Each structure stands twice: as C-alpha cells, then as structure tokens.
Amino acid sequence: MTDFTPFPQLEIPETIAAGPGPGNTDARVLARYAGAGLADHMHADVLRGMVECKQMLRAVMGTQNTYTFGVAGTGWSGLDMMFSAVQPGDKVVMFVNGTFSGIDGLTVRMKAATAEELAANPLDPQAASVVIVDVPHGQSVTGELVEAALAEHTPKWAAMAHWETGSGRVNDIEGFSAACEKHGALGLVDAVSSLGVGDFRIDDYPGVHGWASCPQKGICCLPLTYAPVSFTDTYIDALKATGTRTFCHHPILEARHWGVIDGQDVEKGTYHRTHSAYAVSAFHEALRICLQQTIAQRASDYSFHEAALREAVQAMGCEVTSNMPSLVVLNLPDALAGREMELVQHCRAQNFGIWPTLSEPVQVRIGILNLLSEAAIADIVRRFAAALCELGGEVDQAQVDAVLQRHYGRAMAAE
Ligand SMILES: *Cc1c(COP(=O)(O)O)cnc(C)c1O
C-alpha cells in the first residue's frame, strides 16, 4: 500500500453552530491556536501558560480548590477523571433526567461494577451498588428528590448534571449540595453545559466535591483543548485512600503538569503527558475572554438572548419545554408534529446546525453558544421560520417580528 493516493485537502464549510454544543469558537481563540510558535510541552512559556490557565480557571469556576485544572480532551474526558474516584462496589446515587446524565449513569455503573458485574454485561453493567433515580425527560432534578433519595440510601457518592443538555433542564444544585452535606455523600457534578454560561461559584456548594466541564460549550474553546475540572481536598483524600486504575485520567497525576504537586501550587509543572502548546494558547485566550467579559455579564447576556429566541419560536406556535439559558428545546406546532427529524435535517443541509434531542421524545434543540447579539438571534429566527414554511408550516411573520422588535427595541432604548 505504498501508492495510496491521498484524498484532496479536507474542506469543511462555514456553519452556524446553533445547537446545544459545540459552540462557535471565538476568532481570538483560533488566532492564538494557530499563532503558538512551538510544540515543546516543557518550554518555559508553555508551562507558565498552564499555570496561568489554572489560576484563571479558578476565577472562572469561583473556587479556591488547588486541584483545579484542565483535562486534555472533551467533556467526557473531564467526567471520566471526575468519576475515576468511584471504585467497584462503591455506593452511588445518580440522578438522570436526559441523555447526558444518562451516560454519566452508565459511566458510574462501569466504575462501580464489581469484576463479575462488569463481565456479565461489559457495555451496560448493572452494578448492585448504584441506584439510578430516573426523572422524566423535560423535568428538573429537585432538591426534595435528592434529599429523599440520599436519606434513604446514604451513599458514598451522589451525582447529577448541573444543566441536563439533552432535555434542556436546569437542576437544583443548591438542594443537591445541601442534601449531600446533610447525608454525608460526596457530590459529583457534570457542569459541562453550565460553566461559562451560568453565573455561579462552585465554592458556594460545599456538598459538591468534584466538578467536570468541557472546552466546547460555555468556554467556547473547541479546537480540542481542555475539559475544566475541580476537586476539593476531601475528594483528593478519598482518592488517595483507594487509588484509581488510570494513569492518564488520574486527578493527582494529571494535576502535576499544571503545577499542583502534593496539594500545593508550585512554580511550574512536571511531565505527565505531552501537552499541546497550541491547545494551551487557545485555552488561555478563551479563559481571558471569559474573565474580560465577566461570568456575570455573560450569564445575563445568555438569559436576555434566550428569552428573545424563546418568545420568537413561541410566536411561531412552538412549545418550549426547556429552562436553560443557552438552549431552547421545543415541540413543533401541531401541524408539523412528528416531523422533527426531517426539519432538523433540512436545516442542517443548509449549514444551519440545529439538533434533535438524542433520546425520546424527539424534540428540536436550538442553542445560542457564543451567538450573543441581536444580529445572530435574528438570523437564527429567520432561518428557523423559513424552514418551518419550507416544510409546509405557517408562520405569522408580523408576530415574530414584533417579538424581536419589542425585545431588542426595548434593549436599545435602555442603552
Ligand atoms: C455536551 C455534554 C457532555 C459531553 O461533552 P463532550 O464534550 O461531547 O465530551 C456531557 N455532559 C453534558 C451535560 C453535556 O452537555
């Protein structure tokens, strides 16, 4: 096979990423990615960049946890590291209300399964020590539900998604944290879709000891970079007591390269695995953007623009069932019910990247990650209305226009 002719250069068109994620990467981030001058992961400026990222990340996450850094890869990489402390036979209560917390539940069952349980069903183990509490699609995990389940089972670990992106639901993090504290459970939270979008400080939730997020959503740093994670000393002590069977996703070992050794910040990191100077530069810039804009301002911008998009699709006859500020999850008007996949494919064929739900029931998801302007929202609204019409639906354009006018007119008047 020495004469294999290479394919033509890969061309990927411009699209609007108007889904639940990935978000649209900022041009400043891409420029830093392409602008990094060398590839050596032990160069002094790369190590300095990693230490600066670690410090900026603490500010973005609102934490003093020393063990706060990035895991190379995607959201699941960070989650895999966070769940690495869960050992076979550990008692875990996991709250599931959509696709992503469902996969978190699978991860937990894989980690908590005994060798026999894993061998019996390697891809979907039924671990006797794990309780999965299912919450119907479209509903949030409430503090009362967490309280009742933890009171009944008193597990070592409790886990849920902060914001469940599959159904577009915000879960009760305050109630979750309080119940974990009360019942002595160590809380683990999938914050993949909330970090960089919502205004929260993880140190305000003392029942939660492990947090994992992703590069591609609220941090707007897809060019495969780092999944933010943060662990309390209590989590690290629990991990020290049991150990974990991973080198690469070992929280204590990975932290070394970010300049955290034996629980202390040190001036520069030591080798754990090869890091990309390009990824470090991009991540560094993304964190700078978050802090320059401020988490509070971003959160208020997301809520403001989500409200405009929500009202506009409601004016088209859609029913919105989500309550997440970066995402609208909706049912189509009755006349188009059942044609959700067709509509999504129709939009995607025009490089308008909206998404269906990935688990039942089939709904449409439209996201606004890094699309925080009147022009971007108006463009999404126009494209979505056109797609509904192209499928034979009817849109009262005057009413939709009135929503945007009222929303943005009022904003402009207020400025
Ligand atoms: C997107 C998402 C994930 C997965 O993140 P990847 O970057 O695709 O690995 C996990 N959990 C939640 C809540 C998500 O929204």
From TrEMBL:
InterPro entries: Aminotrans_V_dom, PyrdxlP-dep_Trfase, PyrdxlP-dep_Trfase_major, PyrdxlP-dep_Trfase_small, SP_NH2Trfase/AEP_transaminase
Cofactor(s) required for function per UniProt: pyridoxal 5'-phosphate
Membrane spanning stretches: none
Annotated GO MF terms: transaminase activity
Top-level division of the source organism's lineage: Bacteria
Gene3D superfamilies in alphabetical order: Aspartate Aminotransferase, domain 1, Type I PLP-dependent aspartate aminotransferase-like (Major domain)
This protein's UniProt keywords: Aminotransferase, Pyridoxal phosphate, Transferase
Matching SUPFAM superfamilies: PLP-dependent transferases (SSF53383)
Domain Aminotransferase class V residues, every copy: 125-197
Sequence similarity: Belongs to the class-V pyridoxal-phosphate-dependent aminotransferase family.
UniProt protein name: Aminotransferase class V-fold PLP-dependent enzyme
Organism: Roseobacter sinensis
